[in-house]
User: Fold this.
Amino acid sequence: MTAAITRIGQSRYSPTRGRIVAHAGVLTTVATATKKVPSAYEQARDALNNIDQNLAEAGIDKSRITTVMVYLANISDKPGFNRAWDEWVDRDKLPVRACLGVDLEGDDLVELVVTAALDA
Amino acid sequence: MTAAITRIGQSRYSPTRGRIVAHAGVLTTVATATKKVPSAYEQARDALNNIDQNLAEAGIDKSRITTVMVYLANISDKPGFNRAWDEWVDRDKLPVRACLGVDLEGDDLVELVVTAALDA
Amino acid sequence: MTAAITRIGQSRYSPTRGRIVAHAGVLTTVATATKKVPSAYEQARDALNNIDQNLAEAGIDKSRITTVMVYLANISDKPGFNRAWDEWVDRDKLPVRACLGVDLEGDDLVELVVTAALDA
Assistant:
């Protein structure tokens, strides 16, 4: 019998939350920007880079991403987020995406929740 | 070896986002209303209809839906959304649902993120 | 041929929404607090307890949780939510979590959407 759930790494912000979980061939991971700078574009690049790193830690890359939920502290930052997204996304492997304005804690401008396929 | 991820269609609003993705037997799709009219009830009907069309494009229908995340630009529109939902939902196949007030871009009043089972 | 989707229980708030759905080895469930008291900490405990009950109804427990989406009516309640979370979470089985401030209906201060593995 194999353990069907793989938990990789803690949140960098709390010892009581996970950062990457995989189950039934699907990985879910969450990221914010490491540097809480005032530019949503820069935070977006940073958070997307953290997603890349989380995927790499699980042995996959962004071509396996299936969905991305984008949470912005200011929906007016969507053009800046989109600029970072367009520079980053794998255009042959487009994820389904929704982008919502919500309240985030502290100086976070961007939060991402990503699902990806472990096998493809 | 088969490709485990199926990507169907681009977003109607951007060439860098997908509209439907399927992996491991689960389809995820996103929709807003096509016509950005001022009535949340009308936008809800429109967005739910777009979900129906996306599911049809993947060969399934609303009886296979497992979860629906409902995002409203004004949480006070929830009664109007619920009216459209009650007219639309398959009462023998109730999805799990959450309904949240968030900021949406432009004139969107409703955004939906839906997961469904490809086989049942 | 087996039915791949299992729908357990209606929402306690509406006859047109489900409370627990399972498909492809993954359970999704939603909860708010039963008692809409003014304390976010108390609502968090209550909602997390409702998650426990929903999981139990499906024959599993919180050790199987993979992801938790936390929606707070006031992001400033995050410390109170975290207190309830830290008292509740299985520290050997940390879920991936995101916590967002959104508008909720009525007196709800906390809403949770949880995914869990049916087998592990």
